[in-house]
């Protein structure tokens, strides 16, 4: 209709073409959107010349749509043209200049060029801090982008800090159930997951899913993403609980098995023996042999030595202390259980000690 009313080269026709590009882009038909943006750009340049705010807007839109089509190099060229044009058209602190920096940062991040992305985001942030109120939604958008970038850089504390700032701004600007709040909670969940704070991550993913479910159908990509993240973290938590349980059971089983196989260990733990604990096992023989060797070594290197340092005294006293405690436990055990045969073994150990003491000069 506008073409019929004003002709094909009228400014309102160019505006309509640009608006149609926006609609198709929102619907996900990026190729069709790109065609409308290109037609709008050509018409704007014909009407207004190469240097005009509307031309810069068209370049910006073409950069965004080419980015959606994964044509990153082409997108970068359009955004750079838009940035340079806006620098010529506006003062250095204009909001639209920060928008171009932010758009370039998004593409550089997607390409893995994180340092370039950081430079663009920081340039955009400096401008917005000067021209916008601290609670402006555009501040939250940039803080959110910085949080994602720091997460990619592995600086999770900074990432969490920026995401929380974005969350508080979006709470005040949109309320608790807005999809933008859901975006930030999803990002916070990802940060906490990377930090292995799985309980907190699950809580954020659950909140994000509930928010998205109020705004989108369950088949929407954001709903599916939040659901997959929640399922993934929940599975990790379940696996950890099972692993902890297995470790606990394994530890209890190992201690029980040792005490079952060795009356010496059982005595040292301060317990008495019941049915099935009355036959000696090879484990007890090994323990007795080890303690006997420690006793002999103690007599050889400690008894009679005049130059004893404090640490050496403590270190060499350990086996003697253990042997003494076990002997006392054996005596108690002998009084409780009459067939405690290890009592005779410890009698032999005492004899070994006496012999070692008497013949220490020969060692």
Report on this structure.
The chain has 363 residues and is mainly α. Among the domains are: 130 residues, Serine Threonine Protein Phosphatase 5, Tetratricopeptide repeat, CATH 1.25.40.10; 89 residues, no CATH class. About 8% of the residues have low confidence.
What is the fold's blueprint, element by element?
Elements: H1 2-6, H2 11-26, H3 30-48, H4 53-68, H5 72-89, H6 95-110, H7 114-131, H8 137-152, H9 156-174, H10 179-194, H11 198-215, H12 221-261, H13 263-268, H14 282-301, H15 310-336, H16 342-358
Largest sheet: none
Query: Structural class, from secondary structure content?
Result: mainly alpha
Instruction: State the shape.
Output: elongated
Instruction: Extract low-pLDDT stretches.
Output: 258-265, 267-281, 334-340
Percent in strands? under 5%
Q: Residue-averaged pLDDT, rounded?
A: 77
Would you tell me which CATH topology of one domain applies? Serine Threonine Protein Phosphatase 5, Tetratricopeptide repeat
Helicity range: over 70%
Helix-strand pattern: HHHHHHHHHHHHHHHH
C-alpha-based Rg, rounded? 38 Å
The tally of helices reads 16
Q: What's the level 1 CATH class of one domain? A: Mainly Alpha
């Amino acid at each position: 209709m506008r073409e019929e009313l004003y002709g094909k080269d009228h400014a309102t026709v160019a505006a309509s073409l640009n608006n149609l590009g926006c609609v198709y882009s929102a619907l996900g038909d990026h190729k069709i959107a790109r065609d409308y943006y290109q037609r709008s750009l050509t018409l704007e340049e014909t009407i207004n010349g190469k240097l005009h705010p509307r031309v810069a807007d068209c370049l910006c839109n073409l950069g965004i749509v080419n980015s959606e089509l994964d044509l990153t190099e082409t997108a970068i060229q359009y955004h750079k043209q838009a940035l340079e044009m806006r620098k010529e058209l506006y003062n250095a602190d204009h909001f639209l200049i920060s928008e171009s920096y932010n758009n370039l940062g998004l593409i550089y991040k997607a390409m893995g060029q994180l340092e370039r992305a950081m430079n663009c985001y920081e340039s955009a942030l400096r401008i917005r801090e000067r021209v916008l109120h601290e609670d402006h939604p555009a501040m939250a958008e940039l803080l959110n982008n910085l949080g994602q970038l720091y997460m990619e850089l592995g600086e999770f504390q900074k990432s969490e800090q920026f995401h929380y700032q974005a969350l508080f701004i979006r709470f005040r600007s949109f309320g608790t159930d807005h999809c933008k709040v859901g975006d930030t909670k999803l990002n916070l969940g990802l940060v906490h997951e990377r930090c292995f704070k799985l309980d907190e991550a699950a809580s954020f993913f659950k909140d994000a899913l509930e928010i998205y479910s109020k705004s989108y159908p369950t088949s929407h990509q954001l709903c599916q993403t939040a659901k997959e993240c929640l399922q993934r973290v929940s599975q990790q938590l379940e696996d950890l609980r099972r692993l902890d349980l297995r470790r606990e059971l394994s530890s209890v089983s190992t201690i029980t098995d040792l005490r079952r196989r060795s009356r010496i260990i059982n005595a040292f733990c301060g317990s008495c023996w019941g049915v099935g604990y009355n036959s000696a096992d090879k484990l007890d023989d090994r323990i007795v042999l080890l303690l006997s060797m420690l006793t002999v070594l103690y007599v050889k290197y400690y008894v009679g030595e005049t130059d004893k340092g404090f640490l050496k005294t403590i270190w060499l006293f350990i086996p003697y202390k253990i042997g003494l405690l076990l002997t006392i436990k054996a005596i108690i055990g002998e009084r409780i259980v009459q067939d405690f045969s290890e009592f005779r073994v410890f009698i032999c150990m005492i004899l070994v000690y006496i012999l070692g003491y008497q013949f220490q000069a020969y060692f």
